[in-house]
Write a structure and sequence with these properties.
single chain; 5-stranded antiparallel beta sheet; 20% strand; alpha+beta; 167 residues; 4 helices
């Protein structure tokens, strides 16, 4: 589970990214399962974009695997009016950027890769912390709810057990 503090760090990274690359029209961090982590996507439905990102990611991962090109790193789609770029962000997230057609694609890749790495570090650390902390729930114990200590009878030896079962 990602804390509110971690989510704010991710959102702030998205905002800084949009400042560094003024031609960006949106930025979204999502899990590979298609759920939104954080977004700065005015005029675009973040849930729909996250779901589409997960679908395109599935195809991109299979293409990379089928061609022997290793693990997925990034995906670039160019449309008539701009670009959609998706970058790996740690073990279980991706960063999707929307950019105008006039964006410098080299700069887009440079900043997208860096931001994806930073976001991945935050989300991977949050995931690791969640795994390290066991989630247990127990009702509060009162003195009357504590189990009483009982003594057990000693175990029978092999000879006694055989005798007991044979008779």
């Amino acid at each position: 589970m990602v804390s509110e503090k971690d989510l704010e760090v991710v959102l702030e990274e998205l905002r800084r990214l949009r400042t560094r690359v003024p031609q960006l029209t949106g930025a979204l961090a999502a899990g590979v399962d298609g759920l939104v982590v954080a977004h700065d996507t005015p005029h675009v439905d973040p849930e729909g974009l996250a779901a589409l990102t997960a679908a395109s990611l599935g195809v991109a991962v299979r293409v990379a695997d089928a061609t022997g090109n290793g693990r997925f790193r990034e995906l670039l789609v160019r449309g008539e009016s701009g670009y959609v770029a998706t970058y790996a962000a740690g073990r279980s997230a991706v960063l999707t950027l929307l950019a105008q057609d006039r964006v410098n694609v080299g700069r887009l890749h440079l900043e997208g890769r860096r931001a994806g790495a930073r976001i991945g570090e935050v989300l991977d650390a949050a995931e690791d912390a969640a795994r390290a902390t066991p989630v247990t729930w127990a009702a509060p114990r009162t003195a009357s709810a504590l189990p009483t200590r009982t003594t057990r009878a000693p175990r029978a030896t092999t000879a006694e057990a055989r005798t007991t079962t044979d008779s």
